[in-house]
Specification:
8 helices
Length: about 325
């Protein structure tokens, strides 16, 4: 721990739970997340679970070091380094004319590919089957919910592919619209309880993360995915910045006919964009979580979008 702590270099970012630094570890650049003391209570079993998750669109946890007990002690998380920042930064850079030409962010096909990558990462988590003991002789299965899907947690590799990060917020959940009570699960299996960032959840939704005993399902992730994808195609922010909040649950309301305009400079036909709104954004942003698609369904729709809009994507 002391050696790794002393090696931290350039600060790459900071959040409410800690700071991220660039570190040269055995000749390899990595990202080290140094958790704040009040937020370091991650059980070791949760870290081992995270380290065992291997998917090309998930940020890989390479290892961790702790001083004292990991749950409550000092904790450093070592991740692969994504050199190109995060999705929100790229969206803003494109709006300001600073996006690197190599990323070809003006092309609809590139953004569809990024949307597909993000949906595939979430579908992997939601399809995860984790078995835990319940009553004597009884077992039950849980999926994994991310709990903090947002554009700043979508990291970009040097060749402009997406990786879903901040996986230390993972929590077991139910994959569909069904719900599970957190208090019904063994206490040792519960990572930190976290809340979604404002703008990425429906206020008052009963099945979003909260205190032990409240309800959680993967459908809250699907709503956050819808907001993030809408950011990707419109350039608007989920909240703040002086704009109306892009909590565009309005798109989940059938009475709202006109979607927000695509980002200026994005080369996409009206037909393709409206198809995206009708088949992906609007369903994800349904106010009633039971009416939202699963992440698997979102992934299938994005697959179909390639073929239905193929001429536009090629151009």
């Amino acid at each position: 721990f002391a050696e790794l702590d002393a090696a931290v270099g350039e600060e790459l970012g900071a959040g409410s739970f800690g700071r991220v630094y660039r570190v040269n570890l055995a000749g390899r650049p990595v990202a080290v997340k140094k958790l704040l003391p009040d937020s370091a209570g991650i059980p070791l079993e949760a870290l081992r679970r995270q380290a065992g998750l291997r998917h090309p669109r998930l940020l890989w946890l390479l290892g961790f070091a702790h001083r004292g007990e990991a749950a409550g002690g000092d904790l450093l998380l070592v991740y692969e380094l994504c050199e190109a920042g995060n999705l929100r930064q790229l969206i803003d850079d494109f709006a300001a004319g600073r996006a690197p030409p190599a990323c070809e962010f003006q092309l609809a096909g590139v953004r569809i590919r990024m949307a597909h990558e993000l949906a595939s990462a979430l579908d992997f988590l939601h399809s995860w089957q984790e078995v835990e003991a319940a009553a004597a002789g009884d077992w039950r299965s849980f999926s994994l919910a991310h709990q903090d899907v947002k554009s700043t947690n979508v990291l970009l590799t040097a060749d402009w592919h997406c990786k879903l990060g901040d996986l230390d917020s993972l929590q077991t959940a139910t994959a569909g619209s069904g719900l599970t009570r957190m208090e019904d699960r063994p206490q040792s299996s519960q990572p930190r309880i976290r809340y979604f960032t404002n703008g990425y959840f429906v206020p008052g939704e009963p099945d979003r993360p909260g205190a032990p005993g409240e309800l959680l399902s993967c459908k809250v992730d699907v709503y956050a995915l819808g907001v993030t994808l809408l950011e990707l195609f419109t350039g608007r922010r989920a909240s703040g910045g002086g704009e109306p909040e892009l909590r565009l649950s309005l798109l989940g309301d059938s009475s709202v006919q006109q979607p927000p305009s695509p980002q200026v400079g994005l080369l996409i036909s009206d037909r393709c964009y409206l198809d995206l709104c009708d088949r992906v954004f609007r369903p994800c942003l349904a106010l009633n979580s039971a009416q939202r698609p699963t992440s698997t369904r979102v992934l299938q729709e994005l697959d179909r979008f390639y073929s239905s809009c193929e001429p536009d994507l090629e151009n």
